[in-house]
Amino acid sequence: MERFRMELESLSKNEEFARVVVAVFLSRIDPTLEELDDVKTAVSEAVTNAELHGYGGGEGIIQVEVELDGRELTVRVKDSGVGIPDVAKAREPLFTTDTTGERSGMGFSFMEAFMDELEVESAPGVGTTVIMKKTIGR
Description:
Blueprint: E1 2-9, H1 13-26, H2 33-54, E2 61-69, E3 72-79, H3 87-90, H4 107-114, E4 117-123, E5 127-135
Antiparallel strand pairs: 1-2, 2-3, 3-5, 4-5
Helix pairs in contact: 1-2, 2-4
């Protein structure tokens, strides 16, 4: 099993950094371009959610943990932000707490579509951890 962990400041420019680093790590097991794109999109959505919703665009630390166990990839994106009061509601397509009209409410739906498994653990005032899994090379 191989793994790495990084901490990022909650800044929009770090979303691209996170997705590229995860993609480079994943490239060790020779995924298809589609698999790479799927993982990059899911990581991007999770990190963006932590920044925009967890920290409201303010300061905070986002932890990204990545693990490869054979061909199974696990990505955990964790924030210590405001948390989600109703995870089931937040996972509904088109649900958003954004009042500016800039967000589509499809973040969790995209993560679920591009990965094999999605788990969301959250508590108000504690933060949120998104756990995504994908088997590479099915």
